[in-house]
Specification:
Order of helices and strands: HHHHHHHHHHH
Distance between the termini: 33 Å
Number of strands: 0
Radius of gyration: 27 Å
Number of helices: 11
Mean pLDDT: 77
Largest sheet: none
Low-confidence stretches: 220-235
């Protein structure tokens, strides 16, 4: 547990430094698109080197096969979890202070709970209370930014509507995008684990059937355990126990929501490679490439200078 906390603190420190770098690049005139897209270009290069050093170049080939087999899934998860996520943060950093972006992105605590609940998870009520406190803090930060800017003669007057529209809104969208992309990948990994569990259960059932046939052939009489549990009464109406429609009656399935249908369509990627975090980030990073290409063609920013690349 202590090791996980330390890793989280170190990761948070590195991630928080990106807000400062984004604001520095914005003040120096660099376009926010390059601040976002170059991050994942370098991430892809670094991850490729790390994975190749740890597992050999064949592992990259295996990951590429997984990507090609489910390229639509990885493109969606990468575009949402990495593309929209970091594009929103860099866009916001181009219009408001970096500390406001960092504080507003804490809304991801609230967004993560909403996303997890949508995927069927349940939480204790105290977590909802903590989320409300974070939401109040986010609102106060953005209101404070607008009020301090308007009261300080050395700063450019920033209306509250500008702070909310160009600062808070992109951060809130990013706050939802990151957990959605991560949860989609988690669900695919979960589906694979469930598939393996079902295969193990079927194997045990098949073995049990073979054993049962063996004992039946030995001449033992099958018996059932004695039970004193009475059947549960689900209705007092006798008609409910009578088959009035005959043996051809069909059971109508319960209607499903569109979200449940989408979750059910998440592919089952039958591989153990998704148990490694580096592999999942590599696949999502490759999947985000189409998003950056389309966004770059739409915005058409000028090429970055050397200082923005090094930052």
């Amino acid at each position: 547990m202590v090791r996980l906390i330390l890793i989280t603190l170190i990761a948070s420190a590195f991630f928080s430094s990106t807000y400062i770098l984004n604001e520095l690049m914005s003040n120096s005139g660099g376009h926010w698109f390059w601040s976002a897209s170059l991050r994942y270009l370098f991430t892809l290069i670094i991850l490729t080197v790390i994975i190749a050093l740890q597992n050999g170049g064949k592992r990259i080939e295996q990951l590429w096969v997984i990507f090609k087999e489910h390229w639509g899934f990885w493109t969606v998860t990468g575009s949402i979890g990495f593309g929209i996520f970091y594009a929103g943060l860099c866009y916001a950093a181009d219009h408001v202070s970096g500390w406001v972006v960092a504080a507003t992105f804490m809304f991801t605590v609230v967004a993560s709970l909403i996303v997890l609940i949508a995927f069927g998870h349940r939480f204790d009520k105290k977590f909802v209370l903590y989320a409300i406190l974070v939401l109040i803090g986010v609102i106060l930060v953005n209101v404070s930014e607008a009020l301090s800017a308007s009261s300080n003669s050395l700063m450019i007057d920033i209306p509250l509507s500008t702070v909310l529209l160009y600062g808070a809104l992109p951060c809130i969208i990013a706050s939802f995008s990151y957990p959605i992309g991560s949860q989609l990948v988690w669900q695919a990994s979960y589906n694979a684990r469930q598939l393996h569990i079902e295969e193990i259960i079927e194997t045990k059932r098949a073995k049990h059937s073979v054993d049962q046939i063996y004992w039946d052939n030995q001449g033992f009489d099958a018996f059932e355990a004695l039970t004193t549990i009475s059947p549960r009464i689900v209705s007092l109406e006798m008609d409910d126990y009578i088959d009035t429609e005959g043996p051809q009656a069909k059971v109508q399935p319960l209607p499903q929501s569109k979200l449940a249908i989408l979750i059910a369509n998440i592919p089952t990627i039958d591989t153990n490679l998704l148990s490694n975090s580096f592999n999942k980030v590599w696949l999502m990073t490759v999947g985000s490439i189409p998003f950056w290409l389309v966004l770059g063609l739409f915005i058409q920013p000028k090429f970055p200078d050397l200082s923005q690349i090094t930052n």
